[in-house]
Write a structure and sequence with these properties.
The chain contains 11 helices and 4 strands. It has a 4-stranded antiparallel beta sheet, with no helix packed on it. The chain has about 500 residues and is an alpha+beta fold.
Length: about 500
């Protein structure tokens, strides 16, 4: 893996921060609006000219520390990264989880809620228009109308229809910043959904590997039981022939019983992980049938995550924190705009007539227009407190964003080191198993020849049985370390597309 031994190229992390800053820089606009209108300067105690966008202040390394696969340059992980394990059953489970996983479906519903809230926030930028129509009937017994004019006795009908409009001039960007905050919150929900999906996919892979490991360990335990039973029969034959002792037989019997007692916990582990898989694919356990197989048939994927600066772009949790910070920054601009006056325009126009036939005649038309300016003078510190609150919330999200980025480096380095260490452990454990198997075979041959010490036979059995079980656990840890690396890298990668509409994110029948 390049510079990071994962083949991370020559471009450093410094290139990622300008792209991040570009995404947030648009939020600086509200800082320049504060003194835009000199006409109301006398109403204001002064202009607040602070930069909304905080300094990220991140110490970005040029490359990773660990070198897991030196001198190898491959493509970054794809969206269907699990295919690298070359397991058709795993791929089928992953695709099913994408469609029906309930956690992903719930996260998608939250995304659609955020999209609806965005549309609500955007409505403030447009004028409101209401239509009104009314008809009244009155009867006068005095022969006079309400205005004192003489009229004939009888019933009087009055008809009217009108349109009324209201619009707030967003001179200081309060409503625009509120819309931007809502849009960034919707983006955060989208990345929340991506994080949930990545976690679900990693859980499916880990649970499936746990199933394979449990199946392998059960098969190995049953083979060991057969071997222990074979040694027991050989010792019993010696006891029957008078060349062995009951103590030797009892020791072997104890070893055989221990091997048999190890099987039920392994079967329980298998059942638990089958149930986990059933939950992940939203099916009752009775409806889930895992053929499984062996960990030995699973391939290790080739991993080269690409340039290190791309980690800042690809991880959904970092994108989420970025969007949350952008939303908080927009809220700061909206809160600042509350210090300035608001200008409201209203208008109404229509027709009113005492006769329905004359309702839309020119002489029946009426209209009125009004403009009002509201300047906060004394509000007991409410606006200032709200501004201070949004600034503090922005600072909290800034610190969380920084921590998320730093954690991303730690996660990747931990996963890379795990791949290297588990691979070395697996290689060494295979040597242990091969040596243990050879020692056990020699001791069994000597037992049958009548030259073996029973203690040696017992020790070689225990060493082999434990070594084989440890080997399977090492294989499981090795494969799971790749899953951890994919998760640390943000899963499968695709070119980042900004300004995606959240309403297009959901496909029928697909939780993703």
């Amino acid at each position: 893996m390049g510079q990071l031994a994962l083949g991370f190229g020559s471009r450093g992390w410094g290139d990622a921060l300008p792209r991040r800053a570009t995404h947030l820089r648009a939020l600086r606009i509200s800082a320049t609006r504060a003194c835009a209108a000199g006409a109301v300067a006398v109403l204001l105690a002064g202009c607040i000219m602070k930069q909304d966008l905080p300094d990220l202040a991140l110490d970005i390394p040029v490359a990773y520390q660990k070198d897991a696969t030196p001198q190898r340059q491959d493509a970054p992980p794809t969206l269907d990264w699990w295919r690298g394990f070359r397991s058709a059953e795993l791929t089928q489970l992953m695709e099913e989880a994408q469609r029906v996983n309930l956690d992903i479906a719930a996260a998608t519903a939250r995304l659609l809620q955020a999209d609806a809230m965005t549309r609500t926030a955007g409505a403030a930028l447009l004028p409101t228009l209401d239509a009104n129509a009314s008809a009244t009937r009155s009867k006068s017994s005095s022969g006079y109308l309400n205005n004192g004019t003489v009229a004939a006795r009888g019933t009087i009908n009055t008809y009217s229809t009108s349109l009324s409009a209201s619009y707030e001039i967003d001179l200081w960007g309060k409503n625009r910043d509120a819309l931007l905050a809502a849009e960034e919150s919707a983006n955060a929900s989208r990345y929340d959904r991506d994080t949930v999906a990545l976690t679900a996919m990693a859980s499916v892979a880990n649970a499936y590997f746990q199933v394979l490991a449990a199946q392998d360990r059960i098969a190995t335990a049953e083979r060991n039981i057969t071997s222990a039973k074979r040694i027991y029969d050989a010792i019993k034959a010696r006891v029957d022939a008078g060349t062995g002792s009951d103590l030797d037989l009892a020791q072997q019997e104890s070893l055989l019983a221990n091997q048999r007692a190890a099987v039920p916990p392994l079967r329980q582990t298998l059942t638990q992980n089958l149930n986990i898989l059933a939950t992940l694919v939203a099916r009752p356990p009775e409806r889930v049938h895992i053929r499984g197989g062996s960990l030995g048939r699973v391939s290790a994927p080739r991993v080269t995550p690409g340039l290190p600066s791309e980690l800042l772009i690809q991880r959904p949790d970092i994108r989420r924190q970025e969007a949350q910070l952008a939303s908080a920054t927009a809220n700061v601009g909206s809160a600042r705009a509350q210090f300035f006056p608001s200008i409201q325009l209203t208008g109404q126009g229509g027709y009113q007539s005492a006769a329905l036939s004359a309702l839309f005649m020119p002489q029946s038309a009426f209209f009125n227009l009004a403009a009002g300016l509201t300047q906060p003078i004394f509000d007991a510190g409410r606006i200032q407190a709200n501004f201070d609150l949004t600034k503090a919330q922005q600072d909290e999200l800034l610190q969380t964003y920084r921590k998320t980025v730093i954690s991303a480096f730690s996660d990747v380095n931990t996963a890379l080191d795990a791949i290297r260490q588990t691979a070395q452990r697996l290689r060494l454990q295979r040597v242990v198993v091969a040596s243990s198997r050879r020692a056990f075979k020699l001791s069994e041959d000597q037992l049958r020849a009548g030259t073996a010490d029973i203690i040696t036979v017992l020790n070689t059995q225990q060493t082999l049985f434990q070594a084989e079980d440890t080997l399977l656990q090492a294989q499981l840890a090795w494969l799971q370390s790749y899953v951890s690396l994919f998760q640390a890298l943000g899963g499968g990668w695709e070119p980042r597309v900004e300004q995606r509409t959240v309403t297009t994110m959901r496909e029928p029948g697909n939780a993703l």
